[in-house]
Design a protein that fits this description.
With 350 residues, the protein is of the alpha/beta class. The chain is built from eleven helices and ten strands. β5 (179-183), α7 (198-219) and β6 (223-226) form a beta-alpha-beta unit. The termini are far apart.
Amino acid sequence: MGVAGSVVPVGQRWQRARQVARLAAIGTGATAAAVVATGGVLLGQARQARRTIPMAEAPPPRCDGVYGAKLPGPPVTVVVLGDSSAAGYGVHRRRETPGALLATGLSRRLQRPVRLHRFAVVGAISAVLRHQVEAALECQPDVAVILIGGNDVTNRAPFALAVRYLVDAVRTLRAAGCEVVVGTCPDLGAIRPIQPPLRWLARHWSRQLAAAQTVAVVEAGGWTVSLGDLLGPRFTAEPTRMFAWDRFHPSAEGYAMAAAALLPTVLSALGAGQERRPTLVRDEGVRSLPQAAQEAARHAGTEVSGTRVRGRERGPAGRWAQLRRRAFFGVGAAPQPSPAADSPTLEGLA
């Protein structure tokens, strides 16, 4: 029994219930309207970005050939797979492409010739990696460098499928004895033609895919380097220098920074980078693989590779991973013409 006078008459209870229902309906309608309005804004921004960013025109320069041909020893065979960021779209000279930059850096530091084959295609998504891998295996590569993910984000491809295609590519290459280094999905939130709130979503999606790529690739036996927004604040602070004419792809200097981030890990994958590994600092060390992937997605230029703790590959939270902030080789202005020893000799023309 309640206190006298505390019982609300039935009519008043129904009236209050109707008021609550009306307010709830208004709130729900407002939320739905906000969602629809936000969706409309995002669609409008996506259309505007597509109009602002021009379609690909001429293909990027071919960079296949032998680098450091006059150096002694058998050549190291490198294949570059992936999308336009791997192909070097946005530059006009062969020496400015990421493949040429990596091959030149490898030949100088290994003091051996490097034979480079590029199979990356402008506009590629992870689903087409299988075809690139099939072609690459005919070259019997020592190491494969894969840059992929940006087009999966812009095309809103299901991330689970995109990661599965990438893992299949890594496993196929590893089964053939080829080392694999993956530059994970770049941060599309750094691209100026994409405006907020779409920019915020693009950044979230990019980092989400990059973290998933890191976990899957390391589990499959590969190495990853977090490209983030292609190495940080300079792309945001100096967009006219770091982005190409289309304001979407990197410029020659942007590709030079990306190659500088990848090069130490490629050397380590080939077994030639141990002596160059920097001393661990506070933010580095061993993590569970999921934790390392999340940290790498937030910090550009971070390498993640599998490791063991007390002889075991796995701990309570999954596989162990080594997290390193890589020191960059030769980061600076766009590359200048190389000496003869570093110039590529085109296959069939040497």
